[in-house]
Design brief:
With about 80 residues, the protein is an alpha+beta fold. It contains 4 helices and 3 strands, in the order βααββαα. It has helices spanning about 10-15, 20-30, 50-55, 65-75, and strands at about 5, 40, 45. A 3-stranded antiparallel β-sheet has the order 1-3-2. The model has no long low-confidence stretch (mean pLDDT about 85).
Length: about 80
């Protein structure tokens, strides 16, 4: 069974603690917050499960973990 529950940009921004404009800029530029989105009838939706997974994947205990995760990500994408 598929785990899809679409939420709008306002709810997504609230969950991520960012402004709606940041989500729009990141969607447009392909940088920053890397989340898949769906566009139906001019409306943008995000899969709530994927937003929650993004939050879990970007939750750290200290800043050293962030640096390590970014270094590993750069290594994987070379």
């Amino acid at each position: 069974m598929s785990r899809i529950k679409l939420i709008d940009t306002f709810e997504t921004a609230k969950l991520l603690n960012v402004c709606v404009g940041k989500l729009a800029n990141d969607r447009s530029s392909g940088s920053g917050i890397d989340l898949k989105f769906t566009k139906v009838g001019g409306k943008i939706g995000y899969n709530k499960y994927e937003v929650e997974e993004y939050i879990r994947a970007n939750t750290f205990n200290h800043t050293g973990e962030v640096k390590l995760a970014r270094a590993q990500c750069r290594t994987l994408h070379k």
